[in-house]
Amino acid sequence: QVQLVESGGGLVQAGGSLRISCTASGRTSSSAAMGWFRQAPGKEREFVVVISWNGGSTYYADSVKGRFTISRDNAKNTVYLQMNSLKPEDTAVYYCAAAFDWIPTMASRYNYWGQGTQVTVSS
């Protein structure tokens, strides 16, 4: 019912910046909290950040706090992740997800997932 498509991934040097986007479609997409998760090969999927449906509340993982910024434009059904001061350990496939909850941090609370976009940070 909700479809998510990420874009904007790519290769960036350590210390650089990248902005990735997630566009949602579906009748209830504007009422969903939107989160970003990431997963590197052989590692578990980890929470990055979430923003509430109205954009009023956010919660960041400690690993990205102060470097990443999430925002959303409900008129465009799009959520953005601005990533600054990127580190090699940020390399992963980044997934956006939608949850009909407040600001969940557990992947199991998310109802819909995008296909992911690769972010690679070189040293």
Shape: globular
Number of strands: 11
Query: Which regions are unreliable across 5 or more consecutive residues at pLDDT < 50?
Result: none
Indicate the mean pLDDT: 94
Secondary-structure-based class equals mainly beta
**Sheet of most strands:** 7 strands, mixed
Give the proportion of residues in helices. Answer: under 10%
Measured distance between first and last alpha carbons: 40 Å
Cα radius of gyration in angstroms: 13 Å
What is the percentage of strand-forming residues? over 45%
Characterise the protein shown here.
With 123 residues, the protein is mostly beta strands. Helix content is 0%, strand content 50%. The strands form 2 sheets. Strands 2, 4, 5, 6, 9, 10 and 11 form a 7-stranded mixed sheet that branches. It has a 4-stranded antiparallel sheet with strand order 1-3-8-7, with no helix packed on it. Strand 5 and strand 6 (58-60) form a beta hairpin.
Write the layout of secondary structure elements.
Blueprint: E1 3-7, E2 10-13, E3 18-25, E4 33-39, E5 46-51, E6 58-60, E7 68-73, E8 78-83, E9 92-99, E10 112-113, E11 117-122
Parallel strand pairs: 2-11
Antiparallel strand pairs: 1-3, 3-8, 4-5, 4-9, 5-6, 7-8, 9-10, 9-11
Features:
single chain, 123 residues, mainly beta, 7-stranded mixed beta sheet, 4-stranded antiparallel beta sheet, 50% strand
